[in-house]
């Protein structure tokens, strides 16, 4: 194996995994170690890699030909695509050891920052060294970092010890919200709730939108109500409404009352629409401009970084007022048209209104048919007075057309028998 003899595992998180042909097959998410009956450090038996569609598989350490900070390369052979399942005598190093409260043999208390694995002359990998940050008072500077042998640390073999979240969050920091949501699903419920609570409001709002409904509800319930209301304020109104729909009406009312009125109002409006209609799946905050706005102004608006690609793909043109429900709906302008027009031209001169808008009660199958027919990324939704009340985007349609449990990794269909050999997801 062409690789350093010692590798710190937290530094491997997110590193790309390549097959012998140089094709990427996934990214490293953790290392699997097997506990031993003696006092010897646990043996590292493999890595956990995340593949497309959020499937996590086991990569035997014997299949890996090289490990470096930029890539993990596999040797030849058939890749076992069965979903990884941890065995009773195993531990996931990053998930279970990072932030563990431990004690050095000197008596100094601290928490685990990283764990190194090391290869001996016989080719066997084991957990060898532990990076431990000294525990200090909150007013003191950060504690000293010790890198010590495994057997100099007490508390590593005891499950259920209290832990913080800082070091695990540092490993997860650069993940996309969907990948972070996937990682949270692998954690025990209590640990998942701890990590979720430690995220800032905006980050947690993004992650909740990517989780299955039952996980969303459990995480929200673990927060105090004021914090839960703050997180709901950071969510898109349609996502917040979907989440609140999973709660009993009395709890909905409590959280809505705790939200800022201007944040709660669009959510209340969305909750009034019947499930499975345009009103229930639309966003109430599309990009809206008046007809006398210029192309340059429209381009500036759709460049705003907080807008999703589907929302930023078009500008809706209405009479004042410009917040939903708006004044009379006039039409829409796609961003490609904006790129082709002089910056000083007015939107009123290039607006397109040859496609009938949706009504709030339009059922989801009809929305899907019409968006597919006209190759639309988003469609306007108007009320009986032709006022714009929102827009249905293609991601809204996908979210509500897929099976209800599509975000739940445990509900993803298993691979065919041809690609799922026996062995519990092990090579």
Automatic annotation (TrEMBL):
CDD domains tied to this protein: CBS_pair_Mg_transporter (cd04606)
Region (Disordered): 408-427
Any GO molecular function: magnesium ion transmembrane transporter activity
Superkingdom: Bacteria
Comp. bias intervals (Low complexity): 412-421
Record bears the keyword Ubl conjugation: no
Residue stretches spanning the membrane: none
CBS domain mapped to chain residues: 282-348, 351-409
GO cellular component terms attached to this protein's record: membrane
Keywords, in A-Z order: CBS domain
Keyword rRNA processing: no
InterPro entries: CBS_dom (IPR000644), CBS_dom_sf (IPR046342), Mg_transptr_MgtE_intracell_dom (IPR006668), MgtE_N_sf (IPR038076), MgtE_transporter (IPR006669), SH3_actinomycetes (IPR058838)
PROSITE patterns per record: CBS (PS51371)
Name of this protein: Mg/Co/Ni transporter MgtE (Contains CBS domain)
């Amino acid at each position: 194996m062409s690789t350093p003899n010692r590798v710190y595992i937290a530094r491997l998180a997110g590193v790309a995994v390549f097959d012998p042909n140089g094709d990427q097959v996934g990214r490293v998410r953790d290392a699997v170690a097997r506990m031993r009956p003696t006092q010897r450090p646990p043996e590292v038996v493999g890595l956990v890699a995340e593949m497309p569609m959020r499937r996590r598989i086991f990569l035997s350490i014997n299949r890996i030909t090289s490990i470096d900070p930029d890539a993990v390369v596999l040797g030849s052979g058939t890749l076992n695509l069965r979903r990884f399942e941890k065995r009773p005598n195993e531990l996931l190093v990053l998930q279970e050891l990072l932030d563990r409260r431990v004690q050095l043999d000197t008596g100094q208390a601290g928490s685990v920052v990283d764990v190194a694995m090391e290869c001996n002359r016989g080719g066997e990998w084991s957990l060898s060294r532990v990076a431990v940050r000294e525990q200090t008072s909150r007013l003191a500077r950060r504690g000293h970092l010790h890198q010590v042998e495994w057997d100099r640390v007490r508390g590593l073999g005891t499950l259920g010890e209290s832990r913080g979240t800082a070091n695990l969050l540092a490993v997860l920091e650069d993940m996309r919200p969907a990948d972070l949501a996937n990682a949270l699903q692998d954690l025990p419920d209590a640990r998942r709730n701890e990590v979720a609570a430690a995220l800032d409001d905006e980050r947690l709002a993004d992650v909740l939108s990517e989780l299955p409904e039952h996980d969303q509800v459990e995480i929200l319930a673990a927060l105090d109500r004021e914090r839960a209301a703050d997180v709901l304020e950071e969510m898109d109104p349609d996502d917040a409404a979907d989440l609140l729909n999973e709660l009993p009406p009395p709890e909905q009312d409590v959280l809505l009352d705790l939200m800022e009125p201007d944040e709660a109002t669009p959510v209340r409006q969305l909750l009034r629409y019947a499930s499975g209609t345009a009103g229930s799946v639309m966003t109430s905050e599309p990009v809206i401009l008046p007809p006398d706005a210029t192309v340059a102004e429209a381009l500036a608006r759709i460049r705003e970084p907080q807008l999703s690609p589907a929302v930023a793909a078009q500008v809706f043109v209405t009479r004042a007022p410009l917040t939903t429900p708006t004044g009379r709906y006039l039409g829409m302008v796609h961003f490609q048209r904006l790129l082709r027009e002089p910056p000083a031209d007015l939107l009123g001169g290039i607006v397109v209104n040859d496609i009938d808008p949706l009504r709030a009660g339009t059922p989801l199958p009809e929305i899907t048919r019409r968006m597919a027919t006209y190759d639309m990324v988003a469609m306007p939704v108007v009320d009986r007075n032709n006022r714009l009340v929102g827009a249905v985007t293609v991601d809204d349609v996908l979210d509500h057309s897929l099976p209800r449990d599509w975000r739940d990794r445990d509900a993803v269909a298993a691979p065919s028998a041809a690609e799922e050999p026996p062995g519990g997801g092990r090579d």
